[in-house]
Amino acid sequence: MSSSGESPATVEEFRSNLQSWLADHDLTPGPDHSLAGHIEQMGRIRREMYDAGWMRYGWPSEVGGLGGPPTLRLVVAEEVLGRNLAEPGPYSMMEVLVPNMISYARPELAAEMVPRYLRGEETWCQGFSEPGSGSDLASLSTRATPDGDNWVISGQKVWTSFAQFSQRCVLLTRTGSADTPKHQGITAFFVDLDSPGISVRPLRTMHGVDEFCEVYFDDVVVPGDRMLGNPGDGWQLANDLLPFERSTCFWQRIAYLFTRMDRLLTDAPDASDAEIGAAYLALHTVRCKSAETQRRFADGAKLGAETSIDKVLLAGAEQRLYDTARDLLPGVLELDETSWRPEFLYSRAATIYGGTAEIQRNIIARRLLDLGKE
Amino acid sequence: MDDRELGMLADTLHKTMSAAAAAETPNVEGALAELGWLEMLDEIPDQASALVFRLLGETGTHAGVLNDVVLHAAGQPGGGTVPLPFTGGRWVIWERTGDSGSGLDGELPIRTAPAGEQVPLAAGRRALGWWLVGSSRAMLSLARRHALDRVQFDRPIASFQAVRHRLAETLVAIEGAESTLRAATDDLGCLLAKAAAGQAALTAAKHCQQVMGGIGFTAEHDLHRHVKRVMVLDGLLGSARELTGEAGAAVRALGRAPRLANL
Q1: Which of A58, A104, A130, B8 could make an SS bond with A73 (beta carbons 3.0 to 4.6 A apart)?
Q2: pLDDT bucket at A4, cuts 50 / 70 / 90
Q3: Which ipTM did the prediction report?
Q4: Which parts of chain A are beta strand (E)?
Q5: Does some domain include residue B201?
Q6: Closest residue of chain B to A374, computed from CA coordinates
Q7: Does the annotation count A245 as an active-site position?
Q8: What is the pTM of this model?
Q9: Do A371 and B148 touch (CB under 8 A)?
């Protein structure tokens, strides 16, 4: 344990210690800009920063953490993503996977597995969406059937990020009988992806980064002690992710988008004030909103439907930023091999993943404006 | 002033201003003076202007208290008037007496004036931002009520997704603007907050007007008062469009996007 393992007195002290550590430790990504290279770099960052203590702050000691508020995780994310040391997509997976394991896995399982993830020894993925269950996630049909002490799983997942690099998967399945109400018939498992009967096929995407996979389960046997929580807890598990996605993940994404805004200012020095101002105002607005959400979350507030506002603001700001980049760099995306190209294309998905823009507006109308049923 | 005292003050102000609106005497200049507005501005300038300006918007009342906020920030005594920059390089005086003017919002005693001296505008912009989000909330409330009450095709129009999404979009804009207002502590932060609030108010006006259909276009309904008011308030001390351009110029000059809100 290095000196950084000492408990920090304040968030600011923590940040400044981290900044000095980063100044002394060169974690610059290597020349491999492929998706495999990104995953490897993510593993390297986790390993070195776990060994130095940084990746352990904000997580409980039961799973190898050093404790402290989740804000410390945000600071680490900001400093790493703000230096473009890791890609925001792989980084953000931690915030949707680890909290579920802490809350739902048997304590021994969480204690065994979570440190492997935090230390970058393993990559994990999240098997939620299915071909027939996108916005209507609760209709998922990948079936888990009890068989003695085991469960046998069959079905198909899609949009499973980084499955081809993953050792394990947090998987939602359908359990219960035909009479079980659909939200109560969902059960989660922590599945080893090298189990017989699993095949993974990366999807080609329009931005050329094959992050998303189809994952097929053909009579896959999973031990009963790999169930996360109890039968029927799966829907609650999926909903428990929301506060993490909407707080820590969003703050990471915003930190990253500010670095892209900085780069746009460099790449388009003759830009118009109006266009740069509008892109910056949208980013500033979601940053102000998200900072309030982080503070509420840190103070123990239960986050809910109101974070759909953060989501709408973030997706809008992200697409505006990249629309502005395309306008201010005419011909560049179309003719040059530049990272603006995949980034622009990926931004088209911002209003689709994590609950579409339409689903968010439905939630706002129903839950925040109390407009009654559609 | 602690939270409890501030809450009591908010209640008193809300009652007084709502009563004035109900009595169709929306100029609350005198009522605010009696409640000690200038003392509040001296003692708790940020809280007092956020509270009073937001309530002016929510209740649809008005007063020339922007003068006081700008004068206070310039270190001058309140109660009078000061020439205020308006969009398009124009200037106006917001009179402290009188109940009408010749502008778009005829209730406001505002008249055009020769150019005045440059004064610090950050506090005034933030105060106007609160007024704009207050007016936006008033418009959203009217449109929400209408959507729930108005039945067509045998169901409330609030059940139609196109209507719901316009109202949701309005709330998103308002909430985002309020966050920028709470985070506004320096010149750039106040400029951005006024821009976000102006944009939110114009978004609210557009969507709420559409949701209200024909009734919102009549002078019998209150919506038009808010619509006209936010157009005037948006122009005061720099419109959303102008300020967005100014923010762009500032960011370009820095060569880096300032991270104003932090954990």
Answers
A1: A58
A2: very low
A3: 0.97
A4: 124-127, 143-147, 150-161, 168-174, 186-192, 198-202, 212-223, 227-228
A5: yes
A6: B159
A7: yes
A8: 0.94
A9: yes
